[in-house]
Amino acid sequence: MKRIYVLIFLTFLFNSCEKKDCCVNFDPVNVTVKFTHNWDGIPINQNDFDNFKFTTENGELISIDLLRYVVSNVTIGQISKKYQLINVGENTGTEIVLNQVPKGNNFVKFRFGFADVDNVDGVYQDLNSTSFNVPMMMGGGYHYMQFDGKYKDSNNQDANFNYHTIRAVNMSNPMNLILEDTSFEVEIGTIEFSKNTTIEIKMNVAEWFKNPNLWDLNVLNTVLMPNFDAQKLMSENGRNVFSLGEISNE
C-alpha cells in the first residue's frame, strides 16, 4: 500500500512540473518599438520643420524639410519585422509592434537601411511609390535615409543640403560599379519582458553632423549619393545616432 502512495505522489509531481514547463514557454507579450527624435536632447516633431532652429556641431544653422529613413530586420529574440519606413515629418511609421514575444530575456536589435541581401531593386512596393529608390546607374536598391533641408552658408545665404544615405557606390567606371554595404546593425542589448512593453529608441539627429566626423555643410551639402567617401563618413556618424530610451510596461 505504501508503494502505491509513493507512485501516486511521483506521478502528481511529474505532471505538475510538466505543466509548469509548458507555461513558461507560453503566455507571450506584445512589444512596441517606438522611435523618437531629438536634437541633442531637444525633441523634434513635424512642427519643427521648415524653420532655422538647429545648429550643427560645425556651427551651421539649419532647417529640416524632410527626414525619413528605413529600419530593417527589427528583431526581438526570434521575432522580427522585415522593414519599416519612418517619416518624421508626417509622423508615420514611428512605432513597430512585434507580437508573440516570449517572456523572459530577449536580445533587441535592428538595422539602419538594408543589408545587401535585402537591398533588392524594386521589390518593396510601398517604397517604390514614395520615391525611395536608388537609380540603377548608382547600383539600384533603396535609400537608407533622405534628410533634406537648408543651411546658412558662409555668406549667411540660404543653401540646400541633401543628406541622403545609400549603399556606397564608386562610379569611376560606370560599366563596373564598386558597391559597399554601408548599412549598419544597431544592437540595443538584452531586455527582460514580463508584460506588454514599449521600448523607446532615440535618434539624436545632431549626431549625423558631429561624431566621429565633424560635418561641414559648406563642403558636403548636395550630390552626396554618388560620393563614395561621403557615404562611408555618413555611415560612421550614423553609428552614434541611436540609443535606448525609456522602457515602459502596460
Rg calculated over all Cα atoms: 24 Å
Spell out the helices and strands N to C. HEEEEEEEHEEEEEEHE
* Main beta-sheet strand count, sense and barrel state: 7 strands, antiparallel
Shape assignment: globular
**CA distance, first residue to last residue:** 52 Å
Low-confidence stretches: 4-24
**Beta strand count:** 14
The residue fraction in helices comes out at 10-25%
The number of helices is 3
Structural class: alpha+beta
Indicate the proportion of strand residues.
35-45%
How many distinct domains?
A: 1
The average pLDDT is: 92
Describe the structure.
It holds the Pfam family MbnP. InterPro entries: MbnP-like_dom (IPR046863). This is Copper-binding protein MbnP-like domain-containing protein. There is one protein chain. By secondary structure, the protein is an alpha+beta fold. It has one domain (29-249). 15% of the residues lie in helices and 42% in strands. It contains three helices and 14 strands. The chain has helices spanning 2-24, 125-128, 228-238, and strands at 29-39, 42-43, 54-55, 61-76, 79-87, 95-101, 104-112, 145-152, 158-165, 168-170, 178-180, 184-193, 197-204, 242-249. The strands form three sheets. Strands 3, 4, 5, 7, 8, 9 and 12 form a seven-stranded antiparallel β-sheet that branches. Strands 1, 2, 6, 13 and 14 form a five-stranded mixed β-sheet that branches. It has a two-stranded antiparallel sheet with strand order 10-11. Strand 4 and strand 5 form a beta hairpin. It is globular. It starts with a helix and ends with a strand. Residues 4-24 have low confidence and may be disordered.
